[in-house]
C-alpha cells in the first residue's frame, strides 16, 4: 500500500480457500495458505469458502487453529475482518470473508440463496482508507446453476444501483461460477463495472482447476478507480493450496 498526496495505490486479492484443504480434502493446508496470502502483500483480501467453525475438524486435526479460519488468516497483518455465514451444517458453518488493512466501518451479509440446498451470499463491506473516500467491497460466491446465478446477478445489480453511491470506488471480487460468461455480460451491462483481466488481457482469467486452469470462474470487477493493473501470481504454491487459482490486481484511487 502506498499513499501519495493525490492518490492511493493498493492491492486486492481474491481466493476460494476450499475450507483450508487441498483438492478432495486430502490435506489440511491452512497454515501454508496463510503464508501464501501474506506473500502477496495484498491490502484487501476477498475469501470464499472459509470456515467460521467446524467442531469435528477442531477435535480431530492437531494443527486446527484456536480462532476462526478468517481470524487465523488475518493474524497481525490485516487489522480488520468481516465474515458472512452462508452454509450451516451439524458440525459448523462457512461463508465469505474479507480481510482489510483499512478500517471496516460497516458490513452486511446478504442472503442470495435460491432454494434450500445451496446457500450463497454477498458480503458487502465499506472500508475507510486514510484521507480518502470510502471504498465499497463486495465478496461474491454465486451458485452452480445458471438459473440461480441469473437471480443472484440481478440482486447484485439492484444492490449496486440502490445502495452504492455512483461516484464511490467499488471492488467486486470472488467466485462467480460463471463458465458460460453470462454473469460477465450482465454485470458489465447493468453497472458499468470493468473486469480487470478482461480489460487488460482481452479475456477473463482461467482459474479452475488450479493446477490446469480451463474455466474462467473467478473475477475482479472495478468502478471509479484511476488506474489498475492485474498482478501475475506464481503457479506454485497456489496450485497446491486450493482448487481455484487466486487473482490479484493493483489499483490506484
UniProtKB/TrEMBL annotation:
InterPro entries: Endo/exonu/phosph_ase_sf (IPR036691), Endo/exonuclease/phosphatase (IPR005135), GPI-anchor_lipid_remodeler (IPR051916). Residues 32-244 form the Endonuclease/exonuclease/phosphatase domain. SUPFAM superfamilies: DNase I-like. This is Endonuclease/exonuclease/phosphatase family protein. GO terms for molecular function: endonuclease activity; exonuclease activity. Keywords: Endonuclease, Exonuclease, Hydrolase, Nuclease. GO terms for cellular component: membrane. One of its GO terms (biological process) is GPI anchor biosynthetic process.
